[in-house]
Design brief:
547 residues; alpha/beta; three-stranded antiparallel sheet; 13 helices; 11% strand; globular
Length: 547
């Protein structure tokens, strides 16, 4: 299958104007969820200092870039995807100086940094929104969000029938400064996340300024959260359905994937193209779309030559473990990207879905948030094969933290450990995203399995489950593997190298490193080859640099 897929064809990424050769076209990009990756100051919560300390491990693993989930100032109603200040670091993660140090150290190690950008909504603690509420009806700041009078004789009903992705109505009623019931505001996610009105010029101006702020800091790109959601249909029309969540990513929605979003990203692209490629950003800065669309053809619209550089391939992520279905979605993904000259991306896991080692351990048809562990041995075997296939495909691959270890989800977290906002709302998503966000085990022993020197007690309800989570992971961690039957896959790479490390048997005895595989991946339309076993000579624990 790989040889067939890698065959040269017309419409490759170098054929279309505007898509010059770039590092992102065949990159391996590693997603870091900062709060659960590594704790650098001993308070039990992952932070930027912890990420910086582990960058040598990621360099030795062989990835090209690191994508960081949000670390901005936030009340953390939705794990930082409710941003109060886009130019400040939340104190739980550190300071702007820590961000600067992380970017500089990554560049010194040959890694690029991609940061999350959340333009669809802000926090309800954003200064604009707080002032809009305080000033009451008629405030000019209300035009920067979607405030509307309610329906009904007393305005007691929401302005339309839209439902929140997290469950319940997509509208919350305000209280006027004098204590009377007021207008409603739109939030496609949690009530603490009011949607911006992208028809207002001040919103567009603000985000162009935010882009420049972080580009000047040296970041190499942006992963754009809910890239499909910025523009709403004129008049905010009713959807006319009371089971709207089943339509997400499968049908046309008045609040998702509207054609107007593309003008926004064309304006952003001109800004990124102003920044010259330097030693730390050879090949340019990039935009990556998180865009749930009904078809891969609609996804391709986001990566036309004058828009974004990449878009996540959620159709691939959502495909069950079935050879015929996988081949179908791979072929259709490649075919959809050829006309726009963009690279295809591949992703199996992230912070919003059950890890694929657990998804593939369960019967197909259960969706991407699964509550049961399933057949864990089968899931691990399939996860290894799926990761190898993904890394062999032409295009760019995304690896979620711990995926290189074959980690499963923690499916039995107690309710008191849950933090997913949709877990606490009726009729929303399943609300079981916490299972893939449990802190990463870095060592076999210790109160936090190497997550940090201070244990995990200060990491909040989810952080207190780190030992439970590491036990469910079977003790897997980057520095040691507890036996051949639990050997994790290492991420193959195209240029700099491969995963380093040697497993240990219980009791501390070392064993020879298992065979690794060099995957000859396609470069800009050139065919690749077959996988070959390889025994690396280097034996390194994470956190140490090669000499």
């Amino acid at each position: 299958m790989t040889q067939h897929l890698a065959a040269p064809s017309t419409g490759t990424s170098t054929d279309a104007p505007g898509h010059r050769t770039g590092w992102w076209q065949d990159a391996v990009i590693y997603q870091v969820y900062p709060r659960s990756f590594a704790d650098g100051n001993g308070d039990g919560m992952g932070d930027l200092a912890g990420v910086t300390a582990r960058l040598p491990y990621l360099r030795d693993l062989g990835v090209d870039a690191v994508w960081l989930s949000p670390f901005y100032a936030s009340p953390q109603a939705d794990a930082g995807y409710d941003v109060a200040d886009y130019r400040a670091i939340d104190p739980m993660f550190g300071t702007l100086l820590d961000a600067d140090a992380l970017i500089r150290e990554a560049h010194a190690l040959g890694l690029r940094i991609i940061v999350d950008l959340v333009p669809n909504h802000s926090s309800d603690q954003h200064e604009w929104f707080k002032r809009a509420l305080a000033e009451g009806p008629g405030s000019a700041l209300r035009d920067r969000y979607h405030f509307r009078p309610g329906k009904g004789t007393e305005g007691e009903l929401p302005p339309n029938d839209w439902e929140s992705i997290f469950g319940g109505p997509a509208w919350t009623r305000t209280t006027n400064p004098d204590g009377t019931p007021g207008d409603w505001y739109l939030h496609l996610f949690a009530p603490e996340q009011p949607d911006f009105n992208w028809e207002h010029p001040a919103v567009a101006d603000e985000f162009r300024s935010i882009l420049r702020f972080w580009l000047d800091m040296g970041v190499d790109g942006f992963r754009v959260d809910v890239a499909h959601g910025l523009v709403k249909a004129d008049g905010l029309p009713d959807l006319g359905s009371h089971d709207q969540l089943k339509l997400l990513g499968n049908d046309v929605m008045p609040f998702f994937d509207q054609d107007g979003v593309h003008e926004v990203y064309r304006s952003w692209r001109t800004i990124l193209d102003e920044y010259p490629a330097g030693p730390s950003s050879a090949g340019g800065r990039i935009l990556v779309a998180e865009a749930w669309t009904p078809t891969v053809e609609r996804t391709a619209n986001y990566v036309r030559p004058d828009e974004m550089h990449q878009a996540f391939n959620f159709q691939y992520l959502s495909t069950a473990w079935d050879a015929a279905e996988l081949r179908k979605v791979i072929d259709s993904s490649l075919a959809a990207m050829r006309p726009v000259g963009a690279p295809t991306t591949w992703v199996l896991s992230n912070h919003d879905v059950t890890r694929h080692a657990t998804r593939f351990a369960n019967p197909p048809g259960l969706g991407t948030q699964i509550r049961t562990a399933g057949d864990r041995d089968k899931g691990l075997r399939r996860a290894r094969a799926a990761t190898l296939l993904m890394l062999a495909l032409p295009g760019s691959a995304y690896v979620y933290q711990g995926e290189e270890l074959g980690l499963p989800d923690v499916t039995d977290l107690p309710d008191e450990a849950r933090q997913d906002p949709s877990f606490f709302r009726a009729d929303g998503q399943d609300g079981f995203r916490d299972g893939c966000r449990v802190p990463i085990p870095w060592t076999r022993e210790g109160s936090s399995y190497g997550f940090g020197d201070g244990g995990s007690s200060a990491a909040g309800r989810l952080g207190r489950a780190v030992r439970r989570g590491a036990d469910r992971h079977g003790g897997l961690h980057p520095g040691a593997v507890p036996g051949r039957d639990r050997r994790p896959p290492r991420a193959p790479r195209t240029r700099r190298g491969y995963g380093r490390g040697v497993g240990e048997r219980p009791g501390g005895r070392t064993r020879p490193a298992p065979p690794r595989f060099r995957v000859h991946r396609q470069h800009h339309g050139r065919p690749g080859g077959a996988a070959r076993p390889r025994h690396p000579a280097a034996r390194q624990r994470p956190g140490r640099r090669r000499r």
